[in-house]
Automatic annotation (TrEMBL):
The lineage of its organism: Eukaryota, Fungi, Dikarya, Ascomycota, Saccharomycotina. Keywords: Repeat. This is Mitochondrial group I intron splicing factor CCM1.
Length: 905
């Protein structure tokens, strides 16, 4: 008698995959989700630091903390320092501490004395100058704990009014003003301290008691605090709150007052454009526009240019305002990187003046001051020359430039076709002979013109550089090479321009240019170089990598878009090891929880590679990096689980599931869904992953966030059926029967598969149960499993008869199952004849589909005189062993390909 079929070979239908060989589990990086919340804007009601009912216990703790928090009046950085007798705040601070410590056994404090000394201390302490070396030794920081504890006592509130018991509205106003003025530039823990926000909230509550119109001054002062502590988002929200109250767009003086208030270093980027976007009905004053443009020009050029476009779109009449246009041109002309945007601006400017051919000249005449008029004229002429506008209007305007040496130089450089290095030297010599002094601005403008007019600076660099340094005494700086590199990158021959830009970058290093001291815009030039390399030279990844390494000599990390381009390039070559090192260099070696939508392109690049890679080792490493650095969106997990199951790594899928489950416990994020459980039960059952099935089922029983359902229990039932764990399967079947709706079609398909292991009598009993269940109608899948069960026990003619009499047309898979599990040649012929006649298209499709039809038969010679049942088992075993061999060969091929693939640049 033949031995029992091994579990790994047992299957009840040909579409069920055999159990895959499991390789060693990998380790998933465990992360916990951390979130950073933005503090809310000032509340309408003040918070308090202490209750009003008794100070004994609170007072003792407070005074002890105050007295232990810092030294008295000595400089903590220098133990040998002496008391500065000339500093009055030292004595005041001592008196304030003595007052706080005067009567620790009393329930009352001398609040008037504490208030007076606190005001005196804040008045005497010098404002922080912002010098880094002064930060730790600042008198304010040395007394910060004392000040905070004094406020804790004074801000105790009356429960009925929510207002401080010991402070009047005038006291609150004075303390608020002193605190903002003295801490406005301190980047210390006060940025997180609630003192100033609480004082502001109290001011808002008592604003009716303030002098007339003084509340706005105090409100606007709050922007200084928000800027000092880099609260840009809060500043914009605060501006949104103020605008509907005061409507600055209706009054020019009020608008200017708001503009000055929001022009603080760390909030102006958002607040100035937002303020100007309030209304387009009245054009702001020229002074306000000039002030805003100058403020934003201190930032990166993209912010300034975006604001300029918004401004001129809202107020087209500004194209005729010489002062505004002059400032815009001066700002834009310094930045060749925005060449296309500048051309667009000039085009609109000229179109605005196209109706009158003398319009440009008339703008000059509007400027009364000769110096300002000349500056505007030179700015406009330079822009028109740089960007090669050849209209009649432009040429007529430039005819008036005769006699201006630098403009004449620019014209000559722009008008000479096919310039050589020698001809450029001649042009510069003629200009200097006429008295033109070559400064940095003129040299940068000249280089911009040469670049824009397609002169190959990179090829002629050595000759020109020698001439500029030896004969013109001009030393190249970052700005020089910035213009040269950007000009080369703008070459219409993209690869040629990129190669020239690389040469110029290397020349800058040879000439000792320290890019690390450059502006944000200048460092962005290096990012543009990397982007161009990735886009135009993806076939030379080694050259790109070497250039990236040279750029990294000057920056701690490259820009975001450059990071994305490099990551995509490395992954396109499957250099996953290099990607790991690259991300460690750029993002750090420590685990982080960056919000995925804060850097969506980086995260999506990693995720998409993991979801598309056919090599599970590569997919696992890259997915691990995405989990290491990013707080992944919940929606991504199901796709990742599905992918690793498809890569035949159910162990990896289980680890990812456990990671999501642990993450939900730690951070309160969304736990695994019922759909994820169903997916994993199905996939684990398909490959016979016993440990995974059992652990997943334990999680399900413990998971209070997932409601049990028939579809969910069906997936678990199927998984345990694949394991042939009959007791667990029967238990699940009993649970399913207890649901109000009872088992569904999928439940019966699985339990029919389970009954097939027992006997044909159990199969018949379950089929009768299904037919008697008036809640459902047997499905095509039910019939398919019933047909296979009959074939499994040798009832081939009966199985064919069931197929002939199905109430619905059998699917192609059902026909294949009937044919494959029929093990006698004569009966196979009957199935073939029936299928060809009844369903010719489906049969033809099966015949052309590779591996769809099997030819295994019973051993008709039967030399060992086995029973028919044993012969049938042997035929089934042979068929399943072929599938097992195919699976093992596929796994072996995957592993061999993984080991053979190169993984480093």
């Amino acid at each position: 008698m033949a031995s029992k079929i091994p579990r790994r070979l047992m299957a009840l239908a040909p579409y069920t995959p055999a159990q895959k060989t499991l390789l060693q589990s990998l380790i998933l990086i465990q992360t916990s989700s951390r979130s950073t919340r933005i503090p809310p804007p000032p509340a309408s009601n003040a918070r308090t630091y202490a209750s009003s009912s008794g100070f004994t216990g609170f007072y003792k703790k407070l005074v002890k903390k105050s007295l232990e928090s810092s030294k008295w009046e000595f400089n903590e950085l220098d133990p040998n320092a002496t008391i500065n007798e000339a500093a009055p705040y030292v004595a005041t601070a001592r008196k304030l501490k003595e007052t706080l410590a005067a009567s620790p056994n009393s329930n009352t404090l001398d609040f008037a004395q504490i208030k007076a000394l606190l005001i005196q201390l804040l008045t005497e302490i010098p404002a922080f100058s912002g010098i880094p070396d002064e930060r730790l030794s600042s008198p304010f920081i040395k007394n910060q704990k004392l000040i905070e504890n004094s406020f804790s006592v004074l801000l105790a509130a009356d429960p009925s009014t929510k207002l401080p018991i010991n402070l009047t509205s005038q006291d609150i106003e004075l303390l608020y003003t002193l605190m903002v003025s003295k801490t406005g530039n301190i980047f210390s823990s006060l940025g997180k301290s609630p003192i100033i926000p609480n004082l502001f909230s109290l001011l808002h509550i008592t604003r009716n008691q303030l002098e007339s119109n003084k509340d706005l001054d105090l409100y606007l002062l709050y922007f200084k605090f928000l800027s000092a502590h880099k609260k840009e988002t809060e500043a914009k929200k605060f501006l949104d709150w103020l605008i509907p109250i005061y409507h600055p767009e209706r009054n020019q003086d009020l608008f200017n007052q708001f503009l000055y208030a929001v022009s603080q270093p760390f909030i102006l980027k958002s607040c100035i454009p937002h303020l100007f976007s309030l209304s387009t009905t009245t054009t702001p004053s020229t002074e306000a526009i000039l002030f805003a443009l100058r403020q934003l020009s201190l930032l990166d050029s993209s912010v300034s240019l975006k604001f300029t476009k918004q401004l001129f779109k809202s107020y087209p009449e500004l194209y005729s305002n010489a002062q505004v246009v002059s400032l815009v041109l001066k700002t834009l002309n310094k930045n060749i990187r925005q060449a296309s945007e500048i051309k667009a601006f000039i085009s609109k400017f000229l179109a605005h003046h196209s109706k009158d051919e003398n319009s440009l000249a008339s703008i000059d005449e509007e400027i009364k001051d000769p110096v300002e008029r000349l500056e505007f004229h030179k700015s406009l002429a330079l822009t028109l020359i740089k960007y090669n506008d050849s209209s009649v209007q432009t040429q007529k305007y430039l005819e008036t430039d005769v006699g201006i040496p630098d403009i004449e130089l620019y014209k000559t450089l722009a008008a000479t076709e096919g310039l050589s290095a020698e001809s450029i030297r001649t042009i510069f010599k003629d200009a200097t002979a006429k008295g033109l002094e070559i400064n940095n601005d003129i040299m940068h403008n000249a280089l911009d013109i040469l670049i824009i007019h397609k002169f190959n600076v990179a090829e002629n660099f050595d000759a020109l550089h020698d001439f500029f340094t030896t004969e013109l005494n001009f030393e190249s700086d970052i700005g020089t090479f910035e213009s040269l590199i950007l000009g080369s990158l703008n070459n219409s021959q993209k690869r040629q321009g990129t190669e020239a830009a690389i040469i110029l970058f290397e020349k800058s290093i040879e000439n000792g240019i320290q890019w690390n001291i450059g502006t944000e815009d200048q460092l962005e030039t290096l990012d543009k170089l990397i982007l161009a390399l990735c886009q135009t030279m993806p076939d030379d990844v080694f050259k790109v990598f070497k250039s990236y390494q040279k750029v990294r000599m000057f920056v701690s990390s490259v820009g975001y878009q450059a990071q994305v381009a490099l990551l995509k390039l490395f992954l396109s070559y499957n250099y996953v090891g290099d990607c790991e090192r690259f991300l460690e260099d750029e993002l750090g070696k420590e685990t982080r929880d960056i919000a995925w939508d804060a850097e969506p392109e980086l995260y999506q690049t990693l995720l998409e590679y993991a979801l598309k890679s056919d090599n599970y080792k590569d997919a696992w490493l890259i997915y691990g990096l995405s989990e290491k650095y990013y707080d992944a969106p919940y929606a991504s997990y199901e796709a990742v689980l599905r992918r690793f199951c498809a890569l035949e790594r159910p162990d990896a899928a289980l680890l990812i599931f456990k990671n999501l489950r642990n993450k939900a416990k730690v951070s309160g994020s969304e736990p695994p869904s019922a759909e994820m459980y169903r997916l994993l039960f199905h996939e684990f059952g398909a490959v016979g992953y016993e440990d995974g099935i059992r652990e997943l089922y334990i999680f399900l029983k413990m998971d209070i966030s997932v409601d049990p359902s028939v579809p969910l229990l069906n997936s678990a039932l199927n998984a345990f059926t694949e394991l042939e764990d009959f007791s667990q399967a029967v238990e699940l079947w009993s649970q399913i029967q207890q649901f109000p709706g009872g088992p569904d079609s999928e439940s019966y398909t699985t339990v029919l598969k389970l009954c097939t292991h027992a006997s044909i009598q159990d199969v018949e009993h379950m089929w009768e149960t299904l037919q008697a269940d008036n809640r459902i109608t047997p499905s095509e899948e039910n019939y398919r499993q019933y047909i296979v069960a009959n074939c499994y026990h040798g009832f081939y003619a009966r199985a064919l008869e069931i197929a002939r009499n199905m109430p619905m047309p059998p699917a192609k898979e059902t026909i294949a199952g009937l044919y494959n599990w029929t093990m006698l040649q004569a009966r196979k012929d009957d199935v073939r004849e029936w299928a060809r006649e009844a369903f010719p298209r489906k049969w033809a499709a099966l015949e052309t589909e590779d591996g769809a039809l099997k030819t295994y038969l019973l051993d008709e010679e039967n030399k060992n005189n086995d029973s028919e049942a044993n012969l049938r088992r042997q035929a089934i075993r042979d068929m399943l062993e072929e599938k097992e061999r195919e699976q093992i060969e596929r796994e072996g091929r995957i592993v061999r390909e993984a080991l053979a693939a190169p993984k480093a640049a």
